[in-house]
Write a structure and sequence with these properties.
Largest sheet: 30 strands, parallel
Number of strands: 46
Oligomer: single chain
Radius of gyration: 27 Å
Structural class: mainly beta
Helix content: under 10%
Length: about 500
């Protein structure tokens, strides 16, 4: 009876997995212990990639060489090699090397050869005193899957490769770079875990980067977990990447960097449905090029190098929508000399301004955003022209003590327009901002069809600012006109937020 019950349970589980598309080589792990909010398992998700001593999965192998630690055979499944290097000396492009559970010394994998371990919890590859623990140069279509690289040097280096896939791999305790893919084209990384990458030595002395993609390559990065990089968690330099359902946390300088200041492939980069949390200095930094940020959570950035910003975008053609940007110890979003659309984002509880837009002269639309419970200001425009702010809510901005000249001033404004021109504020609800709902200082603007509720003052125009007004009302429906105070509100210092030239890796 017990045997039949177990059989029925196993059959039911198999039918369930088949119905949901889960197989031994899939990314989804029904026993995931730390999923993202949408249920996605990030990082290595299975103790064993598939059943059996070896796992070939869906790999296409011309010839397979088998390796079992301590053996001394001819590389067949019945009589495997004992060292990874023995198989590497025999394998050629299109072949596979299959590793049974055990510990192995790393080395150079021939171009176009796949390396298939029995699972990251069961196969460990260690590196020597220099170079990378595993490296592959040239070739196309290789698959690296199912092992842990535990290394005193760099983890994996890919140079001049094409269509390489790295899946179900853990990189632990590497130095310099966890995965160095500066020369990889059409790279795919899926369910990879990279943790605690430290500074390297020699040419890598300043790195400490978990994942580096560069040199005009393209990459797809999905369901990866990057934790505790000494400097940058994920750096896309001179390349384009699609980054989806990735978690990057506890990086020592920046969480994610997309750097196109020397050019990137057409189409730009995309970051979606990812969690970029608890990093130092900047959660996500994008420089030049084209970037889409969609449905991410970017939060909890701490001070590092003297600043804390959840998102910084400079010189970017951007499409930023549906993100939650919260709880920075500094700014939520900084936008410098950008164009594009910022739409339907939640920018909340950042401790030194929710959003700062500065020196924008190309078309920039801010639409239907919820900017709430930030300190100092909800939205500040500095030296910008023709920015359009349409719809949405800017609410409950809290006062923060700011040094103005030689004295401290409590500042808590919904919108600040500082030395900006032709700003449109249309259909925005401005509610319970502690000091001023809209403060225009040395600026020109149009305020149309906005709703003002609460605060010490509603629409303050000073220091030569001018505006046009139509259809603005308070919460009781009464018209709201501008106010030019006899004693101007002491203004928030309007210095520009610093921009960041990034050192080339």
């Amino acid at each position: 009876m017990q045997g039949r019950a177990q059989t029925r349970a196993i059959t039911a589980l198999a039918l369930l997995l088949a119905a949901t598309g889960v197989s031994c080589s899939d990314d989804v792990d029904p026993t995931c212990s730390a999923p993202l909010a949408d249920g996605t398992c990030v990082g290595v998700t299975r103790a064993v990639v598939c059943d059996g001593s070896y796992c070939l999965g869906d790999a296409a192998c011309a010839t397979t060489y088998f390796v079992r630690a301590g053996s001394s055979g001819d590389g067949s499944q019945a009589s495997p090699f004992g060292r990874l290097d023995d198989a590497a000396k025999r394998a050629t492009a299109g072949d596979c090397i299959a590793l049974a559970a055990g510990s192995y010394e790393g080395g150079v994998i021939p171009a176009g050869v796949s390396l298939l371990g029995a699972g990251a919890d069961h196969v460990t590859i260690s590196g020597g005193a220099s170079g990378a623990a595993l490296s592959e140069s040239g070739g196309s279509g290789a698959l690296l899957r199912g092992f842990t690289v535990q290394s005193a040097v760099a983890g994996i280096a890919l140079d001049n490769t094409q269509d390489t896939r790295v899946e179900q791999v853990t990189i632990a305790a590497a130095k310099g770079v966890g995965i160095d893919a500066r020369g990889a084209s059409r790279l795919v990384l899926r369910n990879v875990s990279i943790a605690n990458v430290e500074l390297g030595a020699g040419a890598s002395a300043t790195h400490g980067i978990a994942l580096l993609v560069g040199a005009g390559s393209t990459a797809t990065i999905e369901a990866c977990d990057i934790d505790g990089a000494k400097t940058q968690g994920l750096l896309v330099h001179g390349s384009s990447a699609t980054i989806s359902r990735v978690r990057v946390r506890h990086s020592g300088v920046y969480g994610v960097v997309i750097d196109c200041h020397e050019g990137c492939p057409a189409g730009g980069s995309r970051v979606e449905r990812s969690h970029i949390v608890d990093n130092d200095a900047i959660g996500l930094l994008a420089i030049d090029g084209e970037v889409v940020l969609a449905d991410n959570e970017i939060a909890g950035t701490r001070y590092g190098s003297g600043f804390a910003r959840n998102v910084q975008l400079q010189g970017v053609k951007l499409d930023v929508r549906g993100n939650t940007v919260r709880d920075s110890l500094g700014q939520g979003i900084v936008v410098h000399q950008c164009s594009g659309t910022i739409d339907k984002n939640k920018v909340t509880a950042n401790q030194d301004r929710g959003m700062v837009v500065q020196r924008v002269t190309a078309e920039l639309l801010l639409s239907d955003n919820r900017i709430e419970r930030n300190e100092r200001s909800g939205l500040t425009l500095i030296e910008s022209a023709a920015v359009k702010i349409k719809g949405g809510i800017i609410a409950e901005t809290k006062k923060r003590l700011v040094l103005v000249g030689s004295k401290g001033v409590q500042v808590g404004d919904g919108v600040q327009l500082l030395r900006s021109s032709d700003t449109l504020i249309d259909g925005v609800t401005l509610r319970d901002n502690e000091r001023v709902a809209v403060l225009a200082d040395d600026s020109t603007f149009n305020a149309l069809h906005n709703t003002f509720e609460g605060g010490e003052a509603q629409l303050v125009v000073q220091s030569g600012a001018t505006g046009t007004y139509s259809g603005n009302k308070d919460d009781s429906g009464k018209p709201v006109a501008s106010n030019t105070p006899v004693m101007p509100f002491e203004n928030d210092p309007s210095e520009l937020i610093s921009t960041l030239p990034l050192p080339i890796p």
